[in-house]
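ARCHIVE ENTRY
Sequence with per-residue tokens
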Amino acid sequence: MNIEEIRENWINAADKDMDASIKMWDSASLYYKEKPMPKWESNDFLKDLNATIELTKDMKVLDIGCGAGVYAIALAEKVGQVVGFDLSPKMIQFARERAQEAGTDNVEFIAGDWDEFDVKKSKFVKNFDLVFAHMTPGINSAETFEKMLACSKKHCFLVKSARRKDFIMDQVINLAGIENNAETKDENITYAFQMLWELGYCPRFTCRQEEWDVEKSLEEAYIWYINRVKTYKNITEEEETKLKDYLKSVAVEGKIHDKTSTTVVTIYWNIS
């Protein structure tokens, strides 16, 4: 498959309703805010990053899909400047608050839609020594991936879920009549590799298995799961009621417990 074929086929299946996507991630922001800072000696991604490249104080780093900013702030300890970019305004708010609390003054956080962000106008092209996107839906198409490539002048990391199963989310997606949920499959990883290979890069792959549990109140679950569906398709009030009824039926003492099982794939490549 050549570059033009990849561009034609690798498109974003979700984000049909951007307001719903923002509401969904805003609703999850408190969960991410309360997550502890990752440690260099124990976090898989940070250990991999530290073992692969030499981080120095003259480096500039871009974190695409930074969430509540934990990786951006961790990187700020070792490099000169970090820019974190995320769709959710609440995530960005919490990231700024966490950086301020930590006394980290060499990190900047930007709220925006990576699909629409103009990297040329914002002078991001070839402006970063390291660009990474860690477990974010922000890299979801050839266009968003090529923007990522354009911003780096040396190092890139892409970390994505593959072979992913979310017990409750998968049921909700199926109940909504959505047959092809791109995030549960391997297309992003496959297309990313194909594009890098066609461009002449030699990407390095590593994989690990991860599982985690998430608990949400029923009201939080309505926002998270139903808005996720709305990013794929418009739904009627009747369909929304059907989804809410399902969530009520699986709630335990007013709580939804979801379990995720996935293969986490890390791709590293060098631009120079």
